[in-house]
């Protein structure tokens, strides 16, 4: 068994959803894939976390029961030079929102309920993009 992954930093994912159960489901899937997660319930909380302890990736519900929607979060993140690079995943129970989510700046869209295979695809795409940016041919994260 290889122990080299213990020295590789874990991918940190921020999960944003006003439904506590959905936060737990998405976080559990990501943790099973070896990621570290932080779950928050509002976009305001998410923006604070992004500013103080930026994650590698954000999974965000589009329709949140508050002033800011997931679409607003994506626009704010993309509009800030310090956070514009973050990998953003939109999740929604409304499949017709996919185009709006991608236009707002999300990298990927998944319908609820989010599947293990969906998040696996997102992690693989993130890893491929990160490898292209750093010129590496191998994974730089532990998941």
Automatic annotation (TrEMBL):
Domain Response regulatory intervals: 12-127
Keywords annotated in UniProt: Phosphoprotein
Highest taxon above the source species: Bacteria
Coiled coil spans: none
PROSITE patterns tied to this protein: RESPONSE_REGULATORY
4-aspartylphosphate: residues bearing it: 61
Matching PANTHER family: RESPONSE REGULATORY DOMAIN-CONTAINING PROTEIN, STRESS RESPONSE REGULATOR PROTEIN 1
Designated name of the protein: Response regulator
